[in-house]
Amino acid sequence: ACYGWKFVRKMKLESSEMDEPNPCGNGLLSSSSSSHIEVQNAHLDEMNNDILYHLGMERCGSSLEDRFGDVRVVVMSGTRLRAEQLANRLISAFKCQLPVGSTLCDLCDTGRYSIYKAAHVLTVSHGVGASSISVLLHEITKLLYYARAKNVRFIRLGTSGGVGCPPGSVVITREAVNSELNPWLMQTVLGKSIQRPSLSSDRLCNDLLNSARDLEGFEGVQVLLARTMCAEDFYEAQGRLDGAICEFSESEKMEFLQKAFDFGVRNIEMESLYFSAFCHKLNIPSAVICSTLLNRLEGDQVTDSPELIQGYIDRAIRVVVHFLKKDHEQAEKEESNRP
């Protein structure tokens, strides 16, 4: 039996629910070669079991390959609501027919993260900041490693503060830099500092850029392929004047933001550096795409109406949905042409 809809949906029908076919098929990504997702930890193979604590899953006895072996894209966003909304939009874009009496449900029951599945795509929430996304990245990558998933790509879909670009711009991260504008992650492991480059996939970034150019109604939207500064927190590290602690002047703030702009930074957020460094380390093609909610050269607070803000957020979502729809159609075409 295909377990895709069984585990992705809360079935109200008690009989024969394990036998529901997955109407979206395998959802294989187009690729000239197949490669399993990798980890770099020999200790994992020595463990009898591996409990993915924050996801509420484990390696043994969970049918991970049946449930997640067909995953080819993981889209990560900050909130549960955004992950759920994206999954519903993908189901519609892929023209998936839900079994009668079924509904989308969260595969993660720990309350820490959320995981939804639409055909070959997982949409997951990662919380706020590097420490939160790091836990998810480790456990979702191990999950897909145990599931023997192939040709997996990771996308972070989020919001950010623009630097010299208007609210509602869409920034695709060419390179993530830290708060000192260096293109690497510094991580302390066993008391030692480790430097890891924070590179994105050129191909995936360009695919997203081309998808944005294809969209109707995007003619007046700035879509930029640029550097993203990843800060350690929302207030001080981003040069905000409105935090509970601020020990710099407005002129010092503007001097730094102008320096970042001159260096090619067009937005600021809090996850791209760890995300990009992690994926590059494990050879996972990755990209970060964010909408901007304000221009930091003009202020620190988001002042537009909730309706306008939602419109800004939707722009990056539309790009990702359009890209994944084309990718899904190409994969199905290649699958149907196989002997």
Automatic annotation (TrEMBL):
<feature type="domain" description="Nucleoside phosphorylase">
    <location>
        <begin position="72"/>
        <end position="324"/>
    </location>
</feature>
<comment type="similarity">
    <text>Belongs to the PNP/UDP phosphorylase family.</text>
</comment>
<feature type="binding site">
    <location>
        <position position="238"/>
    </location>
    <ligand>
        <name>substrate</name>
    </ligand>
</feature>
<protein>
    <recommendedName>
        <fullName>Nucleoside phosphorylase domain-containing protein</fullName>
    </recommendedName>
</protein>
<dbReference type="GO" id="GO:0005829">
    <property type="term" value="C:cytosol"/>
</dbReference>
<dbReference type="GO" id="GO:0009166">
    <property type="term" value="P:nucleotide catabolic process"/>
</dbReference>
<dbReference type="InterPro" id="IPR035994">
    <property type="entry name" value="Nucleoside_phosphorylase_sf"/>
</dbReference>
<dbReference type="Pfam" id="PF01048">
    <property type="entry name" value="PNP_UDP_1"/>
</dbReference>
<dbReference type="GO" id="GO:0006218">
    <property type="term" value="P:uridine catabolic process"/>
</dbReference>
<feature type="binding site">
    <location>
        <position position="240"/>
    </location>
    <ligand>
        <name>substrate</name>
    </ligand>
</feature>
<dbReference type="GO" id="GO:0004850">
    <property type="term" value="F:uridine phosphorylase activity"/>
</dbReference>
<dbReference type="InterPro" id="IPR000845">
    <property type="entry name" value="Nucleoside_phosphorylase_d"/>
</dbReference>
<feature type="binding site">
    <location>
        <begin position="156"/>
        <end position="159"/>
    </location>
    <ligand>
        <name>phosphate</name>
    </ligand>
</feature>
<feature type="binding site">
    <location>
        <position position="112"/>
    </location>
    <ligand>
        <name>phosphate</name>
    </ligand>
</feature>
<dbReference type="InterPro" id="IPR010059">
    <property type="entry name" value="Uridine_phosphorylase_euk"/>
</dbReference>
